[in-house]
Write a structure and sequence with these properties.
The complex is a heterodimer of chains A (419) and B (151). With 419 residues, chain A is an all-alpha fold. Chain A has one domain. Helices cover 67% and strands 1% of the residues of chain A. The longest helix of chain A is centred in the N-terminal third of the chain and has 35 residues, at 109-143. Chain A starts with a helix and ends in a 24-residue tail after the last helix. In chain A, 41% of the residues are buried. With 151 residues, chain B is an all-alpha fold. Chain B folds into two domains: 8-51, no CATH class; 60-140, no CATH class. In chain B, 40% of the residues lie in helices and 0% in strands. Classes of the chains: A mainly alpha (419), B mainly alpha (151). Chain A binds chain B through residues 1-3, 5, 8-9, 11-12, 15-16, 18, 20-24, 27, 98-99, 101-103, 105, 122, 127, 131, 134, 157-159, 161, 166, 169-170, 173, 355, 357, 360, and chain B through 7-10, 12-13, 16, 20, 24, 27-28, 31-32, 36-37, 41, 56, 85-87, 89-90, 103, 105-106, 108-109, 111-112, 115-120, 129-130.
């Protein structure tokens, strides 16, 4: 081994931070999967969740949610575009990323992610958006001059047929794609859960419930994000909030949260009752190194509190003033968003904080700068919002879009439109 | 009888799909390394590339050629199983040309094995370096080639 005083000295710094018994090779400055691998499933989950919110309109025909249909799809797209970035940052050498697509191996989850991602982006999201917006693109391309006009014209792909049969076909295709999109969204995020769930050597991860937990937490976080964005966007644009829509969104969010909380509780009940050899270290992990993120962040602030708040609205919502309901909705959606981020942290980092010996704990001190620091993570979390701002500017104009195959987006009034 | 007509938007998407698949296939053809897959899921030439890398470690035999006295002494003590280059650094360049000096010892590498860690076996002598004669060099009290002796 080449002598590196920095490396050897780091042992002196690291070992006192190790608690109990950890193997020498586990005593490292950083866990193998850093905070960027926390951001990655979080962003992917938001993609899947926002898409499920949109599909409630398309597939399940939930009319009151129509005002957020396009916003949900655009949110899903903005976050999907950023989903691989944390991985590229983490792996380094982003210039080599195309190689997994050139020589993909079936046993490589990373390579399969490339295809699941490409499928979800190109065959689901972009297609659904295109069919939904096609008529608007044609009309906007005629009305808008300059760069905007060029953008809209290029998005028409040269098809200018907006006759009734063509628009009806768009709507039909959009629905079919949305139906295909639901299992695809489950596949996209179930895959992320699968990556952790299939690591049987780690008792914190190796669990068949993991993909299901990931899917439901994704739905919850995506829906909460849609609620948050809809309210913020309405306030920013000074358009009235459609309370029918918001109430309905919260209803679905509440039900999804109930299922999510039930499955995650089931996971813990199962772990505690079966009490295999790892249970002692996992209990110490939950009560010790993950106390603030798991018990306070995820369980109390991210699950219990929103459940109580949203549950109270389900029971006493009619007696509450609109302004109170709105504040409760906003607060609970923010709590859920933070709670799910804490859940991703608990899974990814928590699984690397205890020794394989099940007798000791390691430490993770998050750095500020550096390509795996929290500044980079914050940037990667904010980037989708910036992309979404551009999308909203381009594709969600304040005035109602022309009637046609697409569903009305952000409507200035509180009424609901037809598909 | 009129032939069923493909709607223009579907036709355009089909063309776009064919273009994307074609571009992917062409890219795959040109970007897949020539020797890929000859032996397995990797570039076969990578083996030759790795084999052609210059060696950096000389091994104990090379040290023994000039420093046999030290090597023989070391063989009698606890550090007999520790490679010379574990502490002195890579030595191939020095073995080929004695004028090239080996890396300067900083003695920070002692803690690599001797820093207190409950995971290490009990027979391995361990210290908390921050509390153990702080500020002094290990070699002021220990001789690495004869760990049992004192200077």
């Amino acid at each position: 081994m080449i002598m590196n005083p920095q490396l050897t000295n780091s042992i002196v710094e690291i070992l006192p931070r190790v608690e109990g018994f950890a193997y020498p090779n586990e005593a490292t400055t950083h866990p193998l999967w850093s905070v960027l691998i926390v951001v990655y499933p979080y962003v992917t989950g938001l993609v899947a969740g926002a898409f499920i919110m949109a599909s409630l309109v398309r597939v399940f025909n939930v009319k009151p949610l129509e005002p957020v249909y396009r916003l949900s799809l655009l949110t899903s797209l903005a976050f999907l575009l950023c989903a691989p970035l944390p991985l590229l940052f983490h792996l380094g050498h982003p210039e080599r990323c195309f190689e997994i697509m050139m020589t993909p191996h079936l046993s490589s989850p990373m390579a399969m992610f490339g295809f699941v991602y490409a499928w979800y982006l190109m065959a689901v999201l972009l297609l659904e958006l295109w069919f939904d917006y096609r008529k608007d693109f044609v009309e906007w391309s005629k009305a808008e001059p300059g760069l905007r006009g060029i953008i809209y014209r290029s998005f028409t792909l040269g098809v200018h047929d907006v006759s009734d049969p063509a628009v009806q076909l768009d709507a039909r295709m959009g629905r079919i794609i949305s139906i295909i999109g639901i299992p695809s969204a489950f596949l996209l995020h179930g895959y992320v859960g699968f990556i952790f769930g299939s690591i049987k050597a780690n008792p914190w991860w190796g669990n068949v419930l993991m993909p299901i937990i990931f899917i439901f937490s994704a739905i919850v976080s995506g829906m909460a994000l849609c609620v948050f964005l809809y309210m913020i966007l309405s306030w920013a644009r000074r358009t009235p909030i459609d309370m029918d829509c918001l109430d309905q969104m919260q209803k679905f969010l509440f039900f999804a949260l109930v299922v999510d909380a039930a499955i995650e509780s089931l996971d813990w009940v199962h772990r505690l009752y079966s009490a295999d050899e790892s249970i002692h270290i996992l209990k110490s992990l939950a009560a010790g190194r993950l106390f603030y993120t798991l018990l306070v962040g995820q369980a109390f602030c991210g699950t219990l509190l929103p459940l109580l708040l949203l549950g109270a609205i389900q029971l006493f919502g009619r007696q509450m003033a609109v302004a109170v309901r709105q504040r409760v909705y906003l607060a609970s959606s923010v709590l859920i968003l933070v709670g799910v981020l804490a859940m991703r942290w608990n899974v990814v980092i928590g699984g690397q904080l205890f020794s394989k010996s099940l007798r000791g704990f390691m430490d993770y001190k998050l750095e500020f700068a550096g390509h795996e620091g929290w500044l980079a993570s914050l940037g990667l979390l904010l980037l989708p919002f910036m992309i979404l701002a551009v999308f909203v500017k381009l594709f969600l104009p304040l005035s109602a879009p022309p009637q046609g195959g697409g569903l009305p987006a952000m409507k200035p009034s509180g009424s609901t439109g037809a598909a | 009888m009129q032939r069923p007509r493909i709607p223009p938007q579907i036709l355009r998407l089909l063309v776009l799909t064919i273009v994307i698949v074609t571009v992917y296939s062409i890219a795959r053809y040109f970007l897949t390394p020539q020797s890929f897959g000859m032996y397995g899921w990797y570039r076969a030439v990578a083996l030759d590339e790795i084999a052609a890398r210059p060696t950096t470690y000389a091994g104990r035999k090379a040290c023994d050629e000039c420093h046999s006295e030290v090597v023989q002494r070391l063989a009698k003590y606890e550090h007999k199983s520790v490679s010379c280059e574990s502490c002195h650094g890579v030595g191939q360049a020095h073995a080929e040309n004695p004028d090239v000096a080996v890396a300067k010892l900083t003695y920070s590498h002692c803690v690599r094995c001797h820093e207190a860690d409950p995971a290490r076996p009990k027979w391995l002598k361990q210290v908390k370096s921050k509390e153990h004669y702080t500020g002094q060099r290990c070699t002021e009290c220990h001789i690495p080639h004869q760990p049992n002796e004192v200077p």
